[in-house]
Amino acid sequence: MDSSLRPELFNFLGVPMIHYYTNNWDGVQNFQARQDDILLATYPRSGTTWTSYALDLLYFGQKSQERQETIPIYARVPHLEATLPVKQPGSTQALIKETETADKLLTSPRIMKTHLPVQFVPKSFWEQNCRIIYVGRNAKDTVVSYFHLDRMTKMHPEPGDWNTFLQRFMEGKMVFGSWYDHVNGWWKKMQTYSKLHYMFYEDLIEDTGQEIDKLCSFLGLSASTEEKESIRSKVQFSDMKNNSMVNHTTFKGLDFNKSSFIRKGKVGDWKNHFTVAQSEAFDEDYKQKMKDPTLQFRTKI
Ligand code: A3P
Asked: Looking at 79, 115, 182, 248, which residue is catalytic?
């Protein structure tokens, strides 16, 4: 992947985006979901990979060891709106459209992920009444994790220094837009769409087994106790960090000298980044933006 140029953020239908996620807009909007598709939706850095892996293990862990050992998680679970640049022989560049990758998936169900705000989700997912899982994470840990991701990927705009990045996050000028709009938009969707399961990263940390149980019940799966225990152990942070099929070390375009994709896996790492003044200003601004008392995130557990 030629990642020499960092892309510009631009306003796309009211949401800041980069071209890697809008190049294939017609392909995304016209994507044909199937009834048994599972869509995993998240704001970036909220536990997407973790949940992707748990879902993949739930559906396919018993069926194919080869899948677990040879196919990276980002290929098993395509990122619907992404277009990924690849070098062709003769140094021309092509874009892989992940909608086409999803179309070619032979597995059933297909598990796909998206970072799109709820209003951009292809309408066929709603029409087909697909099961959708949303994972949210507290804003402070999300912005820290996002900062480190943007340091390591040239597919995103230059992060600048920490303080600049934090201000941008508070202003919603991030790839995929405002965290505040994202988590609230998806939360409100539950009022009108019953097949949406809203999870929290902090709950996954606190009691992974319980969250796997809830997933099974939402998905109508009856995994055995042993199977669930095996999944719980495989999705532990240290196991995932050392597993080259899920830790993204095979993903071109990430600079592992800058950070790790599976980085710390903690609730509260924000305390190592925010100054007291930054934290106070953030909390004040947060109160203005997060008015719905039914949606609560935990910054410590
Ligand atoms: P940190 O940068 O705070 O460590 P995503 O997959 O949506 O990009 O989210 C990435 C975040 O999830 C990173 O957070 C990463 O370390 C964390 N993560 C991934 N797997 C995890 C696991 N098994 N346990 C805890 N956190 C995990």
From this structure: 115
273 assigned to active site: no
CA distance 147 to 168: 11
Six-digit token string for 276 = 């007291």
Where the chain has pLDDT below 70, the residues are: 1-4, 91
Q: Which atom of ligand 1 is nearest to the CA of 135?
A: 7
- Residues with Cβ < 8 Å from 194, sequence gap 6 or more? none
| CATH top class, domain 3-289 | alpha beta
CB distance 110 to 37 below 8 Å: yes
Are the C-beta atoms of residues 232 and 84 closer than 8 Å to each other? no
Q: Which amino acid is at 240?
A: M
114 forms beta bridges with 41
For ligand 1, is residue 79 a contact (CB within 6 Å)?
no
The domain segmentation of the chain, as residue ranges, is 3-289
Q: Which residue, 100, 91, 77, is CA-closest to 30?
A: 100
Would you say the pTM of this structure is higher than 0.95? Answer: yes
Cα 36 to the center of its chain, rounded Å? 20
Of 78, 106, 94, 83, nearest in space to 26 by CA: 83
Residue-level pLDDT at 1: 47
Residue 91's pLDDT is what?
A: 67
Please choose from 40, 42, 43, 50 the residue to mutate so as to test ligand 1's pocket, defined by most ligand atoms within 8 A of CB.
50
Query: Which positions ≥6 away from 148 have C-beta within 8 Å?
Result: 258, 259, 263
